[in-house]
């Protein structure tokens, strides 16, 4: 996709369903409120977003769930300490004047999601933008999940310089996966890498060149425009096509680095309860470095969007239930006479 100066499309969105983080009326959760896995989550006004304990592995993760399509199609858009073990059903979250605390019982350990004794916490809110925010008594934002993205950003969210999105292992395992997208402070380029590689240009599998030293962030606005923001200009990565706009729709957009390495732009129609992929980067999924694992290779399915990982001759899948995990030998090595291995 060619890069151009930013041209914002006009898309009518019901603004009351996507509030900003500084409105005092949004204070929903008062200090002293406690959550547990057995209690209800903290919901946004529309009920579309839920902050709380969500099932993960043999326990729970603390995160934000986006209810895309009623009743059971959901997306975890953020979670806390994603590489820690899931917590038990005896854990609790408490909002106090000193911050937001995760208490692990019966161990008695405490983890601070947010702590700042110098700025007294007044209240918190789960907003319909997908942002969970903690306010002080002056309605100033003390802490918000939009500043700490995991694998997803929502419309209105920013990926700041030297920050990154890291893929999940799978759609059900939200610990850190194989791929990441970095907004590089060193050269102001937006680049995707296989994790474990050095973050240098020659190791990337997709990038956007900024051609400027003044880029401050990757921006994703509420109209679905994805761009690099600088002091002098903006570099468009993606605009919502005109044939995908609907003046009667209420649409939220999201961008996610998928478990198998593609960056995908989604639109979510809140009235029709539908979601669709608008764009994939890179468009050819087989261009994602390492998507198929060792001893295997990638071909695209008939729809040209889904990668198929095939083992090399003489190899079989490490995990028959996940063809992305590479392959192992399926034969017993033989040796020529006189070349037997030493005893």
Radius of gyration: 23 Å
Order of helices and strands: EEEEEEEEEEEEEEEEEEEEEEEEEEEEE
The helix count comes to 0
CATH architecture annotation of the largest domain? Orthogonal Prism
Residues in helices, as a percent range: under 10%
Q: List low-confidence stretches.
A: 1-20
User: For the record, what CATH class of the largest domain applies?
Assistant: Mainly Beta
Give the spatial strand order of the biggest sheet: 1-22-21-20-15
Distance between the termini: 59 Å
Domain Bulb-type lectin: 20-147
Pfam families: B_lectin, S_locus_glycop
Keywords: Disulfide bond, EGF-like domain, Signal
Domain EGF-like: 282-321
What does this structure look like?
The protein has 343 residues and is mainly β. The chain folds into 3 domains: 1-15 and 155-239 and 247-290, Bulb-type lectin domain (Agglutinin, subunit A), CATH 2.90.10; 19-147, Agglutinin, subunit A (Orthogonal Prism); 292-343, no CATH class. It is built from no helices and 29 strands. The strands form 8 sheets. A 5-stranded antiparallel sheet has the order 1-22-21-20-15, with no helix packed on it. Strands 2-11-12-13 form a 4-stranded antiparallel sheet, with no helix packed on it. Strands 3-8-9-10 form a 4-stranded antiparallel sheet, with no helix packed on it. Strand 23 and strand 24 (263-269) form a beta hairpin. It is globular and about 80 Å long.
